Amino acid sequence: MKFVIEGLTVYFPYEFIYREQYAYMVELKHALDARGHCLLEMPTGTGKTITLLSLITSYQLANPSLAKLIYCTRTVHEMEKVLDELRRLHLYQEKEIGSSRAKILALGLSSRKNLCIHPVVSGETSRESVDAGCRKLTASWVRAAAETNLDIETCSFYQGYEKQGSEQPLPPGVYTLHDLRVYGRQRGWCPYFLARQMIQFANVVVYNYQYLLDPKVSGIISKEMQKECIVVFDEAHNIDNVCIEALSVNLRQNNLDGASRNIHKLNQIISRFKETDANRLRQEYNRLVEGLAQQGNLHGSDNWLANPVLPEDILREAVPGNIRRAEHFVAFLQRAVQYLRERLDTDTVVKEGPVSFTTTMSTAAGLDQKALKFCYDRLHSLLLTLEVTEIDEFLHVQTVCNFLTLVGTYTRGFSIIIEPYDERMPHIPDPVLQLSCLDASLAIKPVFDRFQSVVITSGTLSPIDLYPRLLNFNPVIIHSFTMTLTRDCLCPMILARGSDQLPVSSKFDMRSDPGVVRNYGRLLLEMVATVPDGVVCFFVSYSYMDGIINSWNEMGILQEVMQHKLVFIETQDYVETTLALENFRQACDCGRGAVFFSVARGKVAEGIDFDRHYGRLVIMFGVPFQYTLSKILNARLEYLRDTFQIKEGDFLTFDAVRQAAQCVGRVIRSKADYGMMIFADKRYNLPNKRNKLPQWIQSQLREEHLNLSTDMAVHIAREFLRRMAQPSDPQVSKSTLLSQEDLEKMAAMPNF
Amino acid sequence: MEEEDKAPDMEAWERAYADDRSWESLIEDESGLLKAGDDVQQQRQHRRRLIQASGPRIQRGIIRYLCLILDFSRAAGEIDFRPSRMAVVAKAVEDFVREYFDQNPLSQLGIIVMKNGIASVVTELSGSPEAHIRALKSNLESFGEASLQNGLELAHTYVQHIPSYGHREVVIVFSALSTCDPGNILETVKKCKAARMKCSVVGLTAEIYICKHISQETGGSYAVAMNEGHLKEILLEHVPPPAAMPDASSASLVRMGFPQRGSEGAVAICACHKELRIGGGYICPRCRARVCELPTECSLCGLALVSSAHLARSYHHLFPIPTFDELLVDASLRGKSSFAGSCFGCRIQLSGGGSLRLRCPRCKRDFCFDCDVYIHESLHNCPGCETLQEEAVT
């Protein structure tokens, strides 16, 4: 359908549109008109992606001055979904306005691991090893050597791309990762480098958050994006954590050991070079005298990771003298590693600011701050000069340099915490030196400054007014949309008491109480006997989950649960969890029924959908507060209080409730779906928790569903499931949809 | 408005009586007589269901072989239906069986029960309602798990030797929430689909994915009962014969025998019970064997034995009476001769209100609501059309 919003013709590939989608478009258009940033919350299952794409591409058609739409997703799977929707939209646009006007180039960009088509390299398992494998075949000196020596192996796809692909643009269209691989195979071109080249010409680029937020990556990938871009962060409820992770480094014993080994190896290579090709080292020295390490036209395949510091903080000056020479630099690194090792060898927890850390560093080990800043670039230059291709082996020294550069550059917004052991397991020594970024606004600031409009959207952004403070920006539009439902297909409940009418909670002083554990067990047991197919349970942490499952096993509750449904458990092992999920799905499909135990903030809670029969019920056992004794968290809370005036309690509750909302939101992925959500903790009853839930959950949370006990919840569940099993009336579900005529009618009424 | 909002939120115990609180809907008319609520509205509602059910005239399969799979697993012992799910199911099935044979005299039915992980035959495919009900009543106990796969496999072996013109149907009444299968049930579903078994499921608790899958794959229906009344209703939806299978449309000759009733005093060895019986019984016209009841299959020569009354009773499914049109009582028409009349069936005055005025589209005679129901649900003949034919003959 095609309709007009305030003078803008919008092409929408479906016949009907939800009311909230229309409202979303109106708000989004206002933000784009104002050339400002916006923050929009709309529940999952209302077609957020297509709404965004449809409005922004239509906006692009109307305003050709706009450069690109940059759509950031968190996972490859989401990326493919976005591109699929875009393809449908594109076909529709072509039909409406002809293929010449609707011409767009849209593509997804991902790491080499997802795009490589080289028969050997693509078989590697980890991202780093694929990158290294690629480098071994495509680095400029390797290819130069291969021209004379035919025995040296190169990548035919990269060669093909070099010869022709880099000049020729891709034909217009929508390319998913799969399409790129297919196209690359057909032409014999490398899809990864092709895609990287083509983002310059593309109208729509879909890639991971990291490509914009992590300075190491965005420095090479997203450097040349124009200001007139619209940036969308989808599923952005955790964007502050992504920003923080992009600028944080952890160093452990094994990193330092690895770094020492790397340095040793570097020394060997340097001495070898000195004997054979001393000239090269001298050239490098000269280049460094002249300017920056990164300067000069490095070849496309040679750059791997840019400076970890934000672009505007990179010093535009020459590398200091004391690390210009390769052997001096290596010695410098050796001293640094030695110093870090000494610091790591401590019995007490140390918390320091970057300023005092660098001062003691320079007095104790003679490592001056200015040289620290250049470590990363200097290492980069050295590795290039030495023609090292096995970069996956040099990861440790890179991590160390990353740390040194960040520590040298930033004086505030960071803290350095050295812990001799994990708080929760004090008898196992596991020293860790953490450089933790406390300020989420640091990493995202360049994005806000650089681009015209940044759209931050998700299904759960409540309380929405906290995000502008956390990220330190001024959105022009903040809006939270509710869902228009044809039937009450959501059934949130707050369970405060167990079957014996005693309160249940995961509060620290109550969580090991056998009564609470038993009450939680009874709740699960009653529910698996009432709810068909899939049930998902979320616990507040791995240790809590392990503890409670053990107790249930001893009490015999687990055995009783197994009579009704099979039990699957998420573990920290990725492969094991994937296998468990697969079997869980199978058990739901064949009617056996299954229950999945999982952890809030885990992988499952973040990325896996339990839609339709895979999740008819989700139980959130407890409130998923962060581990409040964590030193990093405390440092961040302190920083937030001092800098942004956000109270500790407010932030903790906000964070816990958004995680809980994220967990329970897993079960409902579309309006035709239905599911129940049980918040099993008495603390959810408090208004300060309840009111922070997203609007679309709150609006379904009826008065009589608060403060329930187990038997009441079972009763409600039974009724709800029977009601939902009745066929829905197609006439009613039409009423929430708007057709083209409805929209035209609405447009005719000026005061709508 | 507020009342409406409140209605679904009634307490559970209240809801059970909601239908019984008929005193609240009583209305006193001007002469002081009590009338039950808004009749016309209720009548319309009733008719809407009928109209939905009827649809255009279609070919129907009147020779059906229906396999009833009942779930008597542990879940059937739950007491959210009173006295227990199992008892409620048994009662509903009893009604269903009677109604089924009443409307489909040429059809057969068998009962399978799932309990303790296995499926067992309660009654073989046969035509006597009383035998089924008796066997079912002696089998009421519930324990163990339910296995849909075992149930379907058993039903599958059941229907294999059914002649091709017969409709193979399975109706599963399922109380459990999960099925505990020995193998992959999806394979079994495929097998059932290949054998053209139409599997429908009636659930008692909630929507279960595998049940939905089974019914969708095999072309059956799936419904979940809200309460006891609803359970009966959705079970009875399986009573009218289904539309004929599209691929079975080629005509084929079905041999049938119309046996004579044996004389009262005769003594003969009964072919179905294999013992000496006196009196009654029917004699197969081909092999002269004695059988006890109709319809059945002669156990000696395999001929289908029916009585002509059975055929006649099945006939109305093929040629249903058209649904009557409702005439809106329009003020301008009132008093005109064509409108003044009374119900052609029972002579009740139609102009007084209190009943819909319904007109047969063929003979243009008017009927009251009660006669309409009687004609369509029991009589299966329109008196108006019949008299027209008589007039034409004379």
From TrEMBL, chain B:
Cellular compartment(s): Nucleus
GO MF assignments: zinc ion binding
C2H2-type domain boundaries: 360-380
GO biological process assignments: DNA-templated transcription; nucleotide-excision repair; regulation of transcription by RNA polymerase II
Alphabetized Gene3D superfamilies for the sequence: von Willebrand factor, type A domain (3.40.50.410), Zinc/RING finger domain, C3HC4 (zinc finger) (3.30.40.10)
Keywords: DNA damage, DNA repair, Metal-binding, Nucleus, Transcription, Transcription regulation, Zinc, Zinc-finger
Record's GO cellular component terms: transcription factor TFIIH core complex; transcription factor TFIIH holo complex
ZnF bounds (C4-type): 284-301
Similarity comment: family membership: Belongs to the GTF2H2 family.
Protein name: General transcription factor IIH subunit
